[in-house]
Design brief:
Elements (H helix, E strand, L loop, with lengths): L7 H4 E4 L4 E4 L2 E3 L4 H15 L1 H26 L5 H10 L9 E8 L6 E7 L3 H9 L9 H15 L4 E6 L8 E6 L9 H15 L1
Antiparallel strand pairs: 1-2, 2-3, 4-5, 5-7, 6-7
């Protein structure tokens, strides 16, 4: 099975009476984009944007990590690349199948890893622009956390996801790049610092 072979019509269901959405009978929490934007704004105002970024990054990371483990248990795939790529493809927060992986290369032997892609419908970037001016740094914190958590669970080693291109910074699309911490420069330090506890607990 390839990530692009998913038929979501049979697996993604919404119970209109309860408002509960399920994917493969697992409950999903689907929030309105405006509500998420307001939540991030409130957290930022109360705790400062750096603290808010760390909390939201960790939230996304845990979701991505858990989702990958669950999908690995429930499905089979033609290749490891298909299993890895299915993360951004089925990411319901971003609008199903709106994220496109561009490059996947990795070696379990030497720990090298590079995974890049692009998407155009970033609710996080759009909401940032709604509440703020154009950003000076990437703003899709929960999505980058999700990507890092997903790929870390896949690879078994800490990985960091960052946006080199972001709608919130005035670009017409968003891009992600996932690499081991050592492959990044100083721009990854805040992300590494926010996720170190997850990595230490998983190795403990």
């Amino acid at each position: 099975m390839k990530a692009t072979d998913f038929d979501f019509s049979a697996d993604l269901k919404l119970n209109a009476d309860t408002g509960i959405a399920t994917f493969h009978d697992t409950r999903l929490l689907i929030f309105d984009a405006d509500a998420i934007g307001l939540l991030k704004q409130e957290i930022s105002e109360e705790l400062g944007w750096r603290r808010a970024r760390d909390l939201i990054l960790r939230f996304g990371y845990q979701n991505g990590y858990s989702d990958h483990l669950q999908l690995r248990i429930n499905h089979t795939f033609d290749t490891e690349q298909d299993l890895l790529a299915s993360g951004p493809v089925i990411h319901t927060w971003e609008g199903i199948v709106h994220a496109a992986p561009l490059e996947i290369s990795f070696s379990r032997e030497d720990g090298s890893f590079r995974f890049s892609g692009v998407w155009t419908n970033s609710y996080e970037a759009t909401q940032y622009l709604t509440f703020n001016e154009v950003a000076k740094a990437p703003v899709c914190w929960s999505l980058m956390g999700y990507a890092a958590g997903w790929s870390t669970a896949f690879f078994g080693h800490p990985l960091v996801a960052i946006e080199p291109v972001c709608v919130g910074m005035g670009n017409d699309h968003c891009e992600w790049l996932i690499q081991p911490p050592a492959a990044w420069g100083p721009e990854a330090k805040p992300y590494i610092r926010a996720l170190e506890r997850f990595w230490s607990e998983s190795n403990g």
